[in-house]
Amino acid sequence: MLNLTGKNALVTGIANNRSIAWGIAQQLHKAGANLGITYLPDERGKMEKKVAELVEPLNPSLFVPCNVQYDEQVKSTFEAVQDQWGKLDILIHCLAFANREDLTGDFSQTSRSGFKTALEISTYSLVQLSGAAKPLMTEGGSIITLTYLGGVRAIPNYNVMGVAKAGLEASVRYLAAELGPANIRVNAISAGPIRTLASSAVGGILDMIHHVEEVAPLRRTVTQQEVGNTAAFLSSELASGITGQVLYVDAGYEIMGM
Ligand SMILES: NC(=O)c1ccc[n+]([C@@H]2O[C@H](COP(=O)([O-])OP(=O)(O)OC[C@H]3O[C@@H](n4cnc5c(N)ncnc54)[C@H](O)[C@@H]3O)[C@@H](O)[C@H]2O)c1
């Protein structure tokens, strides 16, 4: 029943084989989706090469640079979607950034520029990409973003990223309300802690993972593939009645009081 054949899916946020977006791209590919991949360009082209090699087995029909801090890169990404695909069905927003010094210590010491950077890249980008995707989702669509429990609870060191995730989850609701009449669904997956490049910047991430392994009902944390399976489900017709939601894929940790 989970068949994404004929669906065009744009996946952002693959940096390496630990990225949650990589787990998602693999599961969308398995379900039959046609993939487009964006990468964060750097001056020496290292990321382009690395991501291109990684995603090659998934045969993406689109591979484009997209730094969400630059409007013209976002514009050219969606122009490429328009030119090569004509329509978009699935958008995976799987990116975030905050300065390392803002992911440890006292939240009250967050600088104005650090706050702006975190919210611009991690939160505004969902609004920006959804706005660009909207006219291309002519047959309806599914937009999925990644969030974390730190958006609704105070988690040590998560600090400004918690504020960014709270804004992200609110953005999911506002976007779902706006885009619903066009049959475009917008949801967030709240993943349990996973070791990745981004999460390694959060102070004490390994302690967080060990804590989840001890306390979560399933006595473990989750994998990129499990998050990918949920993204494939949310992208499919099986989830046709679900929008504006935050779905926890965290081995049950969120329900625990102690
Ligand atoms: N790893 C976890 O424990 C965890 C838990 C819950 C939610 N998340 C969320 O999952 C998402 C993916 O993170 P991840 O853990 O897979 O780490 P990751 O480092 O593999 O992915 C983060 C991605 O963001 C991209 N990025 C950063 N700045 C960018 C910019 N300006 N423009 C475009 N792309 C940019 C990076 O290139 C990278 O691909 C993030 O939103 C993160 O907050 C992660």
How would you state the average pLDDT, rounded? 97
What series of H and E elements makes up the topology?
A: EHEHEHEHEHEHHE
Helix residue percentage: 25-40%
CATH superfamily caption: NAD(P)-binding Rossmann-like Domain
Q: Which ligands are bound?
A: nicotinamide-adenine-dinucleotide
Named CATH architecture:
3-Layer(aba) Sandwich
Radius of gyration: 17 Å
Count of individual beta strands: 7
Active site: 148 (proton acceptor), 158 (proton acceptor)
Protein name: Enoyl-[acyl-carrier-protein] reductase [NADH]
Family: Belongs to the short-chain dehydrogenases/reductases (SDR) family. FabI subfamily.
Catalytic activity: a 2,3-saturated acyl-[ACP] + NAD(+) = a (2E)-enoyl-[ACP] + NADH + H(+)
Question: What does this entry look like structurally?
Answer:
The mean pLDDT is 97. 39% of the residues lie in helices and 14% in strands. It has 7 helices and 7 strands. It has a single domain, classed as 3-Layer(aba) Sandwich (Rossmann fold). The chain is α/β, with parallel strands linked by helices and 258 residues long. Strands 3-2-1-4-5-6-7 form a 7-stranded parallel beta sheet, sandwiched between helices. Bound molecules: nicotinamide-adenine-dinucleotide. Nicotinamide-adenine-dinucleotide (NAD) binds next to helix 1 and strand 5. Keywords: Fatty acid biosynthesis, Fatty acid metabolism, Lipid biosynthesis, Lipid metabolism, NAD, Oxidoreductase. Belongs to the short-chain dehydrogenases/reductases (SDR) family. FabI subfamily. InterPro entries: Enoyl-ACP_Rdtase_NADH, NAD(P)-bd_dom_sf, SDR_fam.
